[in-house]
């Protein structure tokens, strides 16, 4: 009974919902518990249909430019739900370290080339900053 009341209350707060089944890119690190405090950036890319293999091939090379500070948490792609959707999850100490880390990637020879080849594959992109809950293994 308590659960049914909770569901009813929750439904009044829920504006929309979408589900995805995601697979992990093999070239990314598997997400591991992290000591904090950190903030997380979830970057979502909606790709043009038929471009997932090209995206993956480019990012298999590009990820090496973003491993220096251990900011790469995970990379995933949709298998069920909206297709040709990619999610990258990054960890930073704060917004300032995010900016510094991202700027440092641009100073590395080869990063710009990877961006050059992946940008034409994107239809839309979104960035969200998230703060972990106390119960999250990603602090």
TrEMBL record:
SUPFAM superfamilies for the chain: Dimeric alpha+beta barrel
GO cellular component: a single term: mitochondrion
Recorded coiled-coil stretches: none
Record-level GO BP terms: mitophagy; sensory perception of pain
Domain NIPSNAP: 40-137
InterPro entries assigned: Dimeric_a/b-barrel, NIPSNAP, NipSnap_domain
Protein family membership: Belongs to the NipSnap family.
PANTHER family in the cross-refs: NIPSNAP-RELATED, PROTEIN NIPSNAP HOMOLOG 1
Protein's recorded name: NIPS1 protein
Source organism of the structure: Neodrepanis coruscans (wattled asity)
Lineage: Eukaryota, Metazoa, Chordata, Craniata, Vertebrata
Encoding gene per record: Nipsnap1
């Amino acid at each position: 009974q308590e659960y049914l009341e909770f569901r009813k209350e929750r439904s009044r707060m829920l504006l929309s919902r979408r589900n995805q089944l995601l697979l992990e890119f093999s070239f990314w690190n598997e997400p591991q518990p992290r000591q904090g405090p950190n903030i997380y950036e979830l970057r979502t890319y909606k790709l043009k249909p038929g471009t997932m293999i090209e995206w993956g091939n480019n990012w298999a090379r590009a990820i090496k430019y973003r491993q220096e500070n251990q900011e790469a948490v995970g990379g995933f792609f949709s298998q069920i739900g909206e297709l040709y959707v990619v999610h990258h999850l990054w960890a930073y100490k704060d917004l300032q370290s995010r900016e510094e880390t991202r700027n440092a990637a641009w100073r590395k020879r080869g990063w710009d080339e990877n961006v050059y080849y992946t940008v034409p594959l994107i239809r839309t992109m979104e960035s969200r900053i998230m703060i972990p809950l106390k119960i999250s293994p990603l602090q």
